[in-house]
Design brief:
Blueprint (H helix, E strand, L loop, with lengths): L2 H14 L1 H36 L4 E5 L2 H5 L4 H10 L13 H13 L3 E7 L1 H12 L16 E6 L6 H7 L5 E6 L1 H43 L1 H9 L4 H36 L4 H4 L8 H30 L3
Antiparallel strand pairs: 1-3, 1-4, 2-3
Helix pairs in contact: 1-10, 2-8, 2-10, 2-12, 8-12, 10-12
Length: 321
Amino acid sequence: MRAQFVMSEIGVGLRRNLTMTFAVIISVALSLALFGGSLLMRDQVSAMKGYWYDKVNVSIYLCNEADAKDSADAKSGQAGAAAGGGGAVCSKGAVTAEQKKSIETDLKAMDLVDSVHYESSDEAYKHYKERFGHTALASVITPDQMPDSFRVKLKQPEKYKVITSSFAGRDGVQSVEDQHNQLDNLFGMLSALNWAALGIMLIMLVVALLLIVNTVRVSAFSRRRETGIMRLVGASSFYIQVPFIMEAAFAGLIGAVVACGMLGVGQYFVIDHGVALRAKMELINFIGWDSVLTKLPLVLAIGVLMPSLAAFIALRKYLKV
């Protein structure tokens, strides 16, 4: 087989179907960009889970005097809601020193617990002012309305429910708040967005495959005279099919390169520079270039193999001389 002949046939095919080839390139680029973006989003969610699940605590809020005096009082109810609970469970009175000691001792005795930090109502009030001092509610909250609490760090954060089941409803305990619930909602939303991107990617992939098949069909029909002559002089089916397959692979390769460029541009201008989310959202552990670079070979491989396979299957039907 002469390489020069194959390359010339590829050039002829691309020129004859320029608009359809361009449509194939755009469709492949968009579908592969969404595919690569979905893989990066999955890595991002995994990185965030590993980062945040290791840092979140389980907070055990203790009953205070305001809850014990009148759990139905609206002002006490607002303070309790702001700090993580309500007063009905504190009907037996504010937490005593013995109850505090018992709770702390039981926490430290658990193998699951890594560390226990006690936060007084004054410390809680100070932290509340730092975070929500600009709100209207902060002006009416007083230190005595903020509950004392134990902030518990776990060795195995995924087993946070053990703490909740052990201390919820205990005398002197107002509520047990697990920060994992908030993170689970966030990660659930990110996962839903990721699945939505995958769904759009599949639609674009189907569109790209249909365009590839149609391009091959048109190309084979326009060159039916040449392929007929090649068949008559003894050319094999594989020899005749190679130029068509190479055309599809070349278009797919260009689309894959464009997709890789889109992923690189997104990482550079959205995460690192330009919008610079990494600098503006320091609390999020964004993935780096290593994650992006590991996805590019896969995107390129799919960009070449997918159109080639689609063209090969289409040729079995449309290239019969």
